[in-house]
Write a structure and sequence with these properties.
This protein has 183 residues and is α+β, with helices and mostly antiparallel strands. The protein is built from 4 helices and 10 strands; from the N terminus they run αββαββαββαββββ. The strands form 2 sheets. Strands 2-1-10-5-6 form a 5-stranded mixed sheet. Strands 3, 4, 7, 8 and 9 form a 5-stranded antiparallel sheet that branches.
């Protein structure tokens, strides 16, 4: 085997061992199913421009005030979702809503990130019941059952959205971003 072929074999073997290449196709591997985490290991990080960054466990989410909502996505029959208001999750990190949400704080946005890199953005105002009657929820159950590995352990559901493109699955992190003060 010449040096070039030997180097390619080593690279393919190393990348295959790391799980990023298939030895048969030489291309990127796609996981057939998302990696399942043990139920107790599910967490979500709230960070960014927050007074108190926090990592919430599934038990922390379960202990918060719960809501049951009904909604449907992509023409499917309506389902029942159980979870917490996204504003309540942000309040755990010290974000203020209601009368305290005014002025420059109205330019603040919330970026929710999924395990696969998908991200969606909300403004704080659209998550505040004083501004909007279409709340967003961080859910962990659908039709009385824990979310499946494809959707969970946490998912954002917004019953009032005409298109469920912001119904982000496998939420792992929520970052609050305050734009810099104007010049």
């Amino acid at each position: 085997m010449n040096m070039r072929a030997c180097g390619r074999t080593i690279t393919i073997t190393l990348l295959t061992a790391l799980g990023s290449l298939s030895p048969l196709t030489g291309g990127a591997q796609q996981a057939a199913h998302p990696v399942e985490r043990p139920a107790g290991a599910a967490t979500i990080q709230i960070s960014g421009d927050v007074p108190h960054p926090v990592t919430l466990s599934a038990a922390d989410i379960q202990a918060m005030p719960r809501h049951t909502i009904r909604a449907s996505e992509h023409g499917q029959p309506e389902s029942s979702y159980d979870g917490v208001a996204l504003s309540d999750v942000l309040a755990r990190a010290g974000i203020a809503f209601g009368p305290a949400l005014r002025g420059p704080a109205l330019a603040t946005y919330v970026m929710c990130s999924a395990a696969d890199g998908y991200r969606v953005v909300f403004t704080l105002a659209e998550l505040d019941s004083a501004f909007s009657d279409r709340p967003a929820f961080l859910v962990d159950r659908k039709d009385g059952q824990p979310l499946d590995a494809h959707s969970g352990p946490f998912r954002i559901v917004i019953p009032g959205d005409a298109r469920p493109a912001r119904w982000i699955r496998q939420v792992t992190a929520i970052a609050v971003v305050r734009p810099p003060d104007r010049p």
